[in-house]
Specification:
Blueprint lengths: L4 E4 L6 E2 L2 E2 L1 H12 L3 E5 L4 H7 L8 E4 L4 E4 L4 E4 L6 H9 L6 E2 L4 E4 L3 H11 L3 E6 L2 E6 L4 H12 L6 E4 L9
Parallel strand pairs: 1-4, 1-12, 4-5
Antiparallel strand pairs: 2-3, 5-6, 6-7, 8-9, 9-11, 10-11
Helix pairs in contact: 3-4
Length: 177
């Protein structure tokens, strides 16, 4: 099989304890110099990713927020492919004491055991959201949004077929892509 692009997860795949090793970065640079495309697919929010991984520009596309946000490092263009979380949803989670609580462009994230509270609030408000788990992290996104939908959007931007991409990940939220 010939592949044109590599789609890789960040935490636990490229990075360990949030840090990308020099030899891993060198391998990515060699891959890129071969004329192939690099796509980073992560559950992290973009500002956090940029903070921990300043070398982000090596990637042609970044799929952040577990598929909800497409970022092009070369142009710094950001494109959300799903709506933002409802303000009343965030307010109710905070009122119910869900901490930590991180709110991105589309993603709402916390940690176990807060998934039960999140599900109760989703039901009470009648929202069409889904909960995705990742090594104890709880990610809440619009229904149908995951790393596969984000990767599909990034591939369309790059005019690449999914048949020419190899995907690598290490956790539950990577199964989709």
């Amino acid at each position: 099989m010939y592949f044109i692009a590599l789609a890789t997860d960040y935490d636990g795949t490229l990075a360990h304890e949030g840090v990308v090793a020099e030899k891993t970065l060198a391998a990515l640079e060699r891959f890129k110099k071969s004329g192939r495309k690099l796509i980073l697919v992560t559950g992290r929010e973009l500002p956090d990713l940029k903070r921990v991984f300043p070398e982000i520009a090596i990637f042609d596309k970044v799929v952040a927020e577990n598929g909800a946000l497409i970022y092009t490092p070369a142009s710094e263009e950001e494109r959300a492919i799903s709506p933002p979380p409802a303000p009343e949803f965030i307010a109710k989670l905070r009122k119910r004491g869900v901490k930590p609580l991180s709110v991105g462009r589309s993603i709402v994230a916390t940690w176990e055991p807060h998934q039960a509270t999140a599900l109760e609030v989703i039901k009470k408000l009648g929202l069409e959201l889904e909960i995705i788990f990742n090594k104890g992290a709880v990610m809440i996104l619009p229904s149908g949004i995951n790393k596969a939908t984000g990767l599909t959007a990034a591939l369309q931007d790059l005019r690449l077929s999914p048949h020419n991409v190899v995907g690598v990940g290490d956790a539950e939220n990577d199964h989709a892509f």
